[in-house]
Amino acid sequence: MGEALLVPCPIGKKHMDRDLIKQQLNYALEGTNFDDQGELYKGKVRDNYVNEDTITMVTTDRISAFDRVLGTVPFKGQALVELADWWFGETADIVANHIIKRPHPNVWKVKRCEPIQVEMVVRGYLTGVTSTSAWTAYQKGDRNFCGNELPEGMRKNEAFPEPIITPSTKAAQGEHDESVAPSELYKRGAVDPGLYKELARISMRLYERGVSRAADQGMIFVDTKYEFGISNGKIMLMDEVNTPDSSRYWMKDDYESRFEKGEEPRKLDKEYVRTWLSDQGFTGDGKPPKLTDEIRVEASARYMEVVEKFTKEPMQLDVGPVDDSIYSILNPFAY
Question: Is the distance from CB of 74 to CB of 297 less than 8 angstroms?
Fold first, then answer.
């Protein structure tokens, strides 16, 4: 795995089913607050404990959409870490990553990097419901999206002639990311042209690897975003890679028939929740609707289905308080 070093995880013996997910609804990990693991910085999904050279990244069960944290989805944090671990291994020949070890199903210890202030978004299809989506821009008549010329007459969920890269800014929590052309990033000083060109090359290779591996499992790898940092002068893939939080996955077998009938694809990703929110009239402004238990359970099952398709192993799950489980590993002497 090159830079990535993973260790066995203390996990249980039960695999995914909806009854088990329902049992975990009241135990979903909303957050942590350990006072002896480093300086705490909370992202939308991760609690990051920052030390001099490393960060302990706790992936919670929080779910965000439209740049807002909406609640929790049981076992989501473990699913993200499990799948990203698999993908970090599958892509280590393309770019180094920041993973040092995985001491717990929800936790990574990673190298501390200097983040590059741009998200590299790669899109293979014209889709989306957010304000930064290609489909939203296309509906408004935009045919030059982040420096990419888009053909006339395209329909929602249609494949682009070739995948495109549409970088976005990295907004502070609670604010909205902004899709911009590379030239605008240069003007803002977010990244210089040489570094951007290298990030674009790496991102396209990562996306192509994702398309290939997803096709092997009967899925379409629709689009994704990658985040990078610099460590000792070296580009590092950070945060996560090709998970249902940062990527869209559709089922391949009936995509064409659904597309021809104007129906939405079958989705195995966070877009399922975004679509539900949009149907409730929420697209980022105002008070979001409360996620129902039904939505939380279904979202959890879809996250885990993606994991198991790639890893070929049932996720090993334990019902109970996740924060206690994490702390018992990070600081065993406290117990």
Answer: yes
CB 211 within 8 A of CB 125: no
Which residues constitute the domain of residue 135? Answer: 120-279
For residue 298, count CB atoms less than 10 angstroms from its CB and return exposed for 0-12, middle for 13-18, buried for 19 or more.
middle
Angle at 66 between CA 256 and CA 248, to 5 degrees: 30
SS3 155: coil
Identity of residue 285? D
Predicted confidence (pLDDT) per residue in 117-145, tens digit: 999 999 999 998 877 789 999 999 999 99
Please name the residue that has the structure tokens 């076992």: 75
Nearest CA-CA partner of 191 in 253, 255, 119, 130: 119
User: Could you report how far apart the first and last alpha carbons of the chain are, in Å?
Assistant: 33
120: left (phi over 0), alpha (psi -120 to 50) or beta: beta
Angle at alpha carbon of residue 186, lines to 182 and 191, rounded to 5°: 90
Long-range contacts of 31-36 (CB under 8 A, 24+ apart): 31/60, 31/62, 31/323, 32/58, 32/60, 32/323, 32/326, 32/327, 34/327, 34/330, 34/331, 36/331
Q: Report residue 7's pLDDT band, with 50, 70 and 90 as the boundaries.
A: very low
Cα dihedral 74, 77, 83, 89, rounded to 10, equals: -160
Q: Is residue 306 part of a domain?
A: no
pLDDT in tens, 189-206: 999 999 999 999 999 999
Residue 274 contacts residue 65 (beta carbons within 8 Å): yes
With respect to residue 314, please indicate whether it lies within any of the assigned structural domains.
no
CATH label of the domain that carries residue 231: 3.30.470.20
Position 10 in a domain: no
